[in-house]
Amino acid sequence: MILKKTLCIVLALLCVPLYANNGATLENILYPVVRVTTKQGSMGSGTVIYSKLIDSKKGIYESYIVTCHHVISSSIIKGDYYNENTEKYEPFEERTPVLIEFFFYKNDRIVKVKKVFADIVAYKKKHDLALLRVRTTKKIRFVAKIPTDKKINSLRILDDIYAVGCPLGMPPIPTKGHITSLSMNIEGETFWLTSSPIIYGNSGGALFTKDFYLIGVTARIASYRSGFSQGAVTHLAFSVPITTLKSWLKSTQYGFVAYPSIKRPKVIKSTLKKKKVFKKKTFKKAPKRKIIKKKTLKKTLRKKLKNNG
Q: Average pLDDT for residues 52-59, to the nearest whole number?
């Protein structure tokens, strides 16, 4: 009996760190991932990578989410318009807000979903990356950890990783795998290949290390064609490396999002090329014409005839 009690206590003590670690894992890799939906209906994933205080007096926070360009590309409209001042056609761009869904958990179960809009503030089609600014002044509690360059350089093939995203429009789901390649080249861009299963909808999601660092943005899966049908190879998952994300953000005015050493600029300029609004030309109203009735016209003619006669 004493032996049984002792064994139960030992097992309980061994399980406590396991469950505690599981909770920490979920908080660090599952909670920062959101669902992204455009007005046009395309759906994908995103990851909160920044949420910091920018106005201590008013208590205003600024938050950013990273996703894939192809997830939100339908919200970017480009074209040409005729500039009346220059009498030339000039390019313009419009970006419609995207819907972000935050998921709240209790005992590993979703208990609440909060919807907030976000603006597309920067994107790079070549890298398949986009940065969204969330329309909220409140702090977002769960934010993905961005690794240092030293940490990134220590990554090796067969390292354990987690891929988290919203497959087929579902809430965020984690899958486990390994790094299988750090040098895959697709259309001149470097991608990291992993064995963690992903599917359509995972695009824009996160790739985490076992110690909860964001090391990539899930972007593509391998596919094959068989006859008239096309199949997906879910365990061949391609991600945009964290190195590409960090270098791209550094080249923009949003370098502070990825690098704590970079200060946030006081004024963030818009990169949109909007249509110029022209003032409408004002015309003076033409004077009203005097309408002469037939009777008065006859009288005036008779008077003129009498005078002439």
A: 94
Asked if residue 2 has pLDDT above 80, the reply is no
CB 224 within 8 A of CB 231: yes
The answer to whether residue 262 is domain-embedded is no
Distances (CA, A) of 61 to 49, 109, 136: 13, 27, 8
The string of pLDDT tens digits covering residues 236-284 is: 999 999 999 999 999 999 999 999 999 999 888 777 666 554 444 443 4
pTM attached to this predicted model? 0.80
Domain span holding position 88: 2-257
Average pLDDT, the chain: 85
**Mean pLDDT over residues 169-176, rounded?**
96
Number of domains in the chain: 1
Annotate the chain with three-state secondary structure. CHHHHHHHHHHHHHHHHHHHHHHHHHHHHHCCEEEEECCCCCEEEEEEEEEEEEECCCCEEEEEEEECHHHHHHHEEEEEEEECCCCEEEEEEEECCEEEEEEEEECCEEEEEEEEEEEEEEEECCCCEEEEEECCCCCCCCCCECCCHHHHHCCCCCCEEEEEECHHHCCCEEEEEEEEEEEEEECCEEEEEECCCCCCCCCCCEEEECCCEEEEEEEEEEEEEECCEEEEEEEEEEEEEHHHHHHHHHHCCCHHHCCCCCCCCCCCCCCCCCCCCCCCCCCCCCCCCCCCCHHHHHHHHHHHHHHHC
Give the per-residue pLDDT at 20: 41
**Domain presence at residue 274:** no
